[in-house]
Amino acid sequence: MTEQKTDWNDIHVAFQVANHGTLSAAAEALGVHHSTVLRRVNALEKRLGTRLFHRHPRGYTPTEAGMLLTQVAENTQAGFDRLLGKLQGTDTQLSGTLVVTTVNSMISNLMPMLAEFQQLYPQVRLEYAADSRIMKLEYGEAHVSIRPGTRPTDPDYVVQRLAEGAASIYADDAYIAQHGLMESLDDIEGHRFIRTVAPYSMIAFMEWMNKTVPDSQISLRVNDLMGFIPAIRAGFGAAPLPCWMASTDPSLKPLIAPPPEWAGPMWLVTHVDLHRSSKVQAFTQFLKQRIQQELSRLMGLPPSPQKKDAP
Question: What's the pTM value of the predicted model, to 2 decimals?
Fold first, then answer.
């Protein structure tokens, strides 16, 4: 067995061939000529003394040895990604990029807060990633995550309870004038509702709708919660919404007091390796303070009356 040093670039090239299945596709991904890919794969096989791929007219399929190499290379790539995510958060100055992720229905509420934060810390470049997909903090896809629903359980996450949010059923004045309010969650007769195409059963109020409201009373289905408010405005009917989401549109009125069983927590999530970085600490402290100031709106409560100054 020779002690000739293995070039890590050759392993990366072989990894790309295994991922893409052909030399030309791997070459395109790597930005090199396909002959370079062929040369590196052949050189690596010769150096290792084993076949990494079965060659056939449709492309390259990993052998057992090739699959072993691919697994190790994939784990190594994931390790590099985690390292880059950690390095991006090691700055001690309040500068650089801060990526905040949450569900897309929170954009109207969080955007003004992000603007306030950037006024306080103009050297921090904010990126707002609203996505139904849960981004992986350990890979550096985001620095701070705000998640409603079930508490995240990843052992490498620092999870803080940010607030409790309520929900109710909302409609506009024209709908209420025609159909009236609801006395309870069972009082659905004569009402028309808007729901989502997918069931979203992990959300309490959507699970209620799935189990309680018959299809005959569904006037419209939309892709996600973001479609509820425009549909209510257009006159399609009533829809359940988080109170903090409905509060962004003064034309929406609750048909019923927020049911206690629909209340749910919001979580502030960071990765343990980035949690103590200056920009993450600055943002999380700012956000917790601002959310506390918005608790009445989050819970669907009327605003507190302003105190009059003593004469």
Answer: 0.63
Tokens of 218: 């569904």
What is the torsional sign of CA 99, 242, 244, 250? Answer: positive
Contacts (Cβ under 8 Å, ≥6 apart) of 160: 267, 268, 269, 284, 288
Name 102's bridge partners: 130, 146
The amino acid occupying position 236 is F
Which residue, among 293, 272, 279, 300, has the nearest Cα to 160 in the 3D structure? 272
- Residue-wise pLDDT tens digits, 31-87: 889 899 999 999 999 988 999 999 988 889 999 998 998 888 888 877 776 666 655
The three state secondary structure string of the chain is: CCCCCCCHHHHHHHHHHHHHCCHHHHHHHHCCCHHHHHHHHHHHHHHHCCCCEEEECCEEEECHHHHHHHHHHHHHHHHHHHHHHHHHCCCCCCCEEEEEEECHHHHHHHHHHHHHHHHHCCCEEEEEEECCCCCCHHHCCCCEEEEECCCCCCCCEEEEEEEEECEEEEECHHHHHHHCCCCCCCCCCCCCEEEECCCCCCCHHHHHHHHHCCHHHEEEEECCHHHHHHHHHCCCCEEEEEHHHHCCCCCCEECCCCCHHHCEEEEEEEECCCCCCHHHHHHHHHHHHHHHHCHHHHCCCCCCCCCCCCC
What confidence tens digit (pLDDT) does each residue in 164-191 have?
Answer: 889 999 999 999 999 999 999 999 999 9
Determine the straight-line distance between the first and last CA of the chain, rounded to whole angstroms: 95
